[in-house]
Design a protein that fits this description.
two-stranded antiparallel ribbon, alpha/beta, 7 strands
Length: 525
């Protein structure tokens, strides 16, 4: 009887343990689904910045309240007792005249307004009124671009004496200036405009087709696509040169995203990669691959042996394995993991974000320092923060369930700990990979507007043209002006002098007026 009771009690306890374990699993699964739902809501409706909801918002409101409470009240800000309530709301007028010096580079068209002879007659005495001065005002107008046909007439010359002598007329035709596309109808300016609109302004070609039709020039999107491919083929040697320069960088930042490609049945999820060179090799080079396998970056970085700054994608392990590449991690990605799991463990998320924020605060102090000075600053201030953060991560790992969403954030950071500490041993390595993630926005915007590429050649074309326009933006260059000059000259330019057409080198050769204009323009983000 006692044995039966003991067996029954053990069975009850085992069932209770199974139920408790099942309850824990359901709780963790519920937390995971909440985190996933919050992530999707943020993607669709939320802000882009990764901020904690509770702690940072409460702290911001607290700081605002303290500043408001301590601010003295000016007597003029207090309304009189007899003042009507509706007069408390006053519309602030804009400040006076704007600084017109910013627009001095624009061409000027002067319109003079005068009184007619009849209107100059004085209504008082009937004499003619004389001009005593003028009032001036400025207005900025936009004149839409226009299309024009350029008729090339090449004269033929022949020798009549030789023809009469029977030795042939010795006919010669004046050579036509070099064109971007052999026997092509599109001029370099039109080609540059299409490429700039497509790859810098993210306009799909069907919209350009409608825009051109409104101006009386009907050209199909298919023809424009062919032209873009021809331009990419022409500038590919320059693209290859940019890729070589990027591979000579000490630090290369990389990222990738999906770029759908048409295929039978449904679109194929191909990839677009970006490789951002350092300050000594300032080019952004894109690369198109048919999948996300490691073969793409491994082929692009086949001769590279420096620092690769990337996220935690496992494919990079095969790229850096067995060679001299040092892999650096991104603290922005690590921070994002804690922000996404905030709802499941707010206290842990707040503490982790606070410590990571201390690392970024050190980076803001060393923004303008040299690499050696920045490294000394990091070792002095960031290294202690890293040691404290690691202790906290190990403690949180012991107290959380293995599949808890916050445990995933902790394990992500610990799994990347060696890569995340590279910046503290090399002052030239950034703390995050945001520079390459920003460049991925170009692909995302084009993907949103154009949906997909048609074939591998289209993907290659997109990579080459995006590399040129992105590098132009990096150097605050008007891509249309750059591409127009490039297409006019590149076909006949010596290959040995190809470096002269790299965006940064081209900018150095521009007239002083354009250089001043570029310098006054806001820096590209």
């Amino acid at each position: 009887m006692l044995t039966a009771l003991l067996v029954e009690r053990a069975s009850v306890l085992a069932e209770r343990d199974r139920q408790k374990q099942r309850a824990d699993e359901l709780h963790v699964e519920n937390l995971r689904l909440q985190v996933e739902l919050a992530r999707y809501r943020k993607w669709y409706y939320g802000p882009r910045a990764d901020r904690l909801r509770a702690s940072e918002l409460a702290q911001a409101l607290l700081d605002f309240g303290e500043k408001l409470e301590s601010k003295p009240i000016h007597p003029e800000d207090v309304p009189a007792a007899t003042e009507p309530a509706y007069e408390l709301r006053r519309v602030k007028r804009r400040p006076g005249r704007r600084n017109l010096a910013r627009f001095e580079h624009l061409p000027v068209t002067t319109q003079v307004y005068e009184l007619s002879a009849e209107e100059r007659v004085c209504p008082g005495c009937g004499a003619e009124r004389r001009e005593i001065g003028a009032e001036e005002s400025w207005q900025i107008e936009y004149v839409p671009g226009r299309f024009e046909r350029i008729r090339h007439v090449r004269k033929k010359y022949a020798c009549l004496r030789c023809e009469a002598a029977g030795s042939g007329p010795q006919i010669e035709v004046v050579a036509k200036p070099g064109t971007a596309l052999e026997k092509g109808m599109a001029g370099p300016g039109l080609l540059a405009y299409i490429v700039t609109s497509k790859c810098a302004d993210y306009l799909p070609l069907y919209r350009l087709e409608d825009i051109f039709a409104r101006q009386g020039f009907e050209i199909s999107r298919a023809t424009q696509s062919v032209w873009c491919g021809d331009v990419a083929e022409l500038v590919e040697p320059l693209y290859q040169r940019m890729a070589e320069r990027v591979r000579a960088s000490h630090v290369v930042a990389t990222d990738d995203t999906v770029l759908p490609m048409l295929s039978a049945g449904k679109a194929q999820p191909t990839r677009m990669w970006v490789y951002v060179g350092d300050a000594a090799h300032p080019y952004n080079v894109f690369d198109f691959t048919l999948n996300r396998g490691r073969d793409g970056p491994k082929q692009f970085l086949k001769d590279y042996a420096e620092v690769l700054l990337a996220d935690a994608y496992g494919g990079y392990n095969g790229v850096v394995a067995g060679n001299a590449i040092t892999r650096a991690g991104c603290w922005a990605h690590a921070r994002r993991k804690f922000v996404e799991a905030e709802k499941t463990a707010p206290e842990i998320a707040g503490e982790a974000v606070r410590l990571i924020g201390a690392l970024f605060a050190v980076e803001r102090q060393g923004w303008e320092l040299s690499a050696e000075q920045r490294l000394a600053l990091r070792q002095q201030q960031s290294a202690p923060v890293l040691a404290e953060l690691r202790e906290r991560l190990l403690a949180w790992k012991d107290q959380l369930l293995p599949k808890h969403p916050m445990a995933e954030a902790v394990n992500y950071t610990l799994g990347q700990w060696q890569e995340l500490n590279v910046f503290c041993s090399d002052g030239a390595v950034p703390i995050d990979n945001n520079v390459s993630e920003r460049e991925m926005k170009r692909v995302v915007l084009n993907r949103k507007n154009s949906l997909f590429v048609g074939n591998p050649r289209g993907g290659r074309t997109a990579a080459i043209l995006a590399s040129l326009t992105s590098s132009c933006r990096r150097h605050v260059i008007d891509p249309q002006v750059y591409l127009t000059q490039l297409l006019v000259n590149l076909a006949s330019w010596p290959v040995r002098d190809l470096d002269a057409w790299l965006p940064d080198q081209w900018k150095l050769r521009q007239p002083a007026r354009l250089a001043a204009l570029y310098a006054a323009a806001p820096a590209a983000s």
